[in-house]
Write a structure and sequence with these properties.
By secondary structure, this protein is of the alpha/beta class. It folds into two domains: 145 residues, ATPase, nucleotide binding domain (Nucleotidyltransferase, domain 5), CATH 3.30.420; 175 residues, ATPase, nucleotide binding domain (Nucleotidyltransferase, domain 5), CATH 3.30.420. Helix content is 40%, strand content 18%. It has ten helices and ten strands. The strands form two sheets. Strands 3-2-1-4-5 form a five-stranded mixed beta sheet, with helices on both faces. Strands 8-7-6-9-10 form a five-stranded mixed beta sheet, with helices on both faces. Strand 7 and strand 8 form a beta hairpin. The longest helix is centred in the last third of the chain and has 30 residues. The chain is globular and about 60 Å long.
Length: 373
């Protein structure tokens, strides 16, 4: 995490933080209240999706995303402040996602946040997008570290031990594709459109998950890492062999894919829970948190809920709208760090890659020279 400005302990007091999120294809602004005793409340949360702009291309186009952020961010920030019922003098700080994400979009949000903070004499906070997801349960249900978090999105699938705000230990990561990417590619293969996760989940609701046999990547491995490239390839092979697909074929294949993904996640997470149990021994009931866009999938939630219950753990999941990208989580992460005396310099950069645990070694097979973001 950034340490350019030394932390100075601040007295316990109420904080109201404006958050800005522009890391991918959602333009968002929110205002969050953090009470002196650490409870959170969302005062406003405005999110504008860009999917209609990207739909003709079958995925997010970085240049289009950045231009779309420029076109609407000012209006969204004004709306968030207006809905919160405050004026600028009531804010404590402005927080913006500084990474990881698409560089162009990150720069739009950062420049806007820095300008607002400078103009109104407010502290500025550069927030890690993954940290914002990981800390969301503190906003929604007052959940405090330590806990194990499973982060699942289009770009990341990781298990991290959240030791404290700003201190994270990576337990596992994907050695190839993120689960969200596998959902998106499966949706594209089946002609379901984007965003892929919700499209696959809707189709799976009427499908037979046992008709097609799909692999459970890494099942039974001692290490808790993930792999989803083989699952994606298996779907492509079936699509090629069965074309043209009927509506029933599509529904059954979506259901099979979703079940395989959920069972693979359950097996890998069980391994990570066993690894982390000694480090959470001091907590009354160890907690598994799931976060990120894929955490909105109900079948995956149910699988992990059963796993937690059978293992004597508690499962915590933010409400579905706060699993996908939003600015309330960014404002909350900023408020949590601000309460601990942190603020960032105005030259804090955009970071396309920004691992929460920089010391983590590359996962064998990841094909990367450095730690995954």
């Amino acid at each position: 995490m950034p340490a350019d400005c030394p932390d100075t302990p601040l007295p316990a007091r109420e904080r109201i933080v404006l958050g800005i999120e522009t890391s991918c294809d959602e333009t968002a602004a929110a205002v969050v209240l953090r009470t002196a005793d650490g409870r959170g409340r969302i005062l406003s949360n405005v999110v504008r999706s860009q999917w209609e702009k990207h739909r003709p291309y079958g995925g997010v186009v970085p240049e289009i995303a950045a231009r779309a952020h420029v076109e609407c961010l000012d209006a969204i920030v004004r709306q968030a402040v207006l809905e919160a019922g405050i004026d600028w003098s009531g804010l404590s700080a402005v927080a913006a996602t500084a990474g990881p994400g698409l560089a162009g979009g990150l720069i739009v949000g950062l420049v806007t946040a820095k300008t607002l903070a400078l103009a109104h004499g407010l502290d500025f906070l550069a927030v890690n997008h993954l940290e914002a997801h990981a800390l969301t349960v503190g906003l929604t249900e007052g959940r405090a570290p330590p806990y194990l978090v499973l982060l699942m999105s289009g770009g990341h699938t990781q298990l991290l031990l959240v030791e404290e705000v700003g201190r994270y230990a990576r337990i596992a990561t994907t050695i190839d594709d993120a689960l969200g990417e596998a959902f998106d590619k499966t949706a594209t293969l089946l002609g379901l459109g984007q965003p892929g996760g919700p499209a696959v989940e809707r189709a799976a609701a009427t499908g037979n998950p046992h008709r097609f046999r799909l692999p459970r990547p890494m099942l039974g491995r001692d290490d808790p890492n993930f792999s989803f490239a083989g699952l994606k390839t298996a779907v492509r092979t079936i699509v090629a062999a069965a074309a043209p697909l009927t509506a029933t074929d599509v529904a059954d294949l979506c259901a099979a894919f979703q079940l395989a993904a959920a069972e693979s996640l359950g097996d890998r997470t069980r391994r990570a829970m066993a690894t982390c149990a000694p480090r959470l021994a001091g907590t009354e009931t160890p907690t598994l948190v799931i976060a990120g866009g894929v955490a909105a999938n109900q079948a995956i939630r149910q699988t992990l809920d059963r796993l937690a219950q059978s293992s004597g753990w508690r499962l915590s999941v933010p409400p579905a709208p706060l699993c996908t990208d939003n600015a309330a989580m960014v404002a909350w992460a900023g408020a949590e760090r601000h309460a601990r005396g942190h603020r960032d310099p105005f030259d804090a950069p955009a970071r396309a890659r920004w691992p929460l645990d920089p010391a983590a070694k590359p996962a064998l097979g990841s094909g990367r020279l450095g730690p995954k973001a």
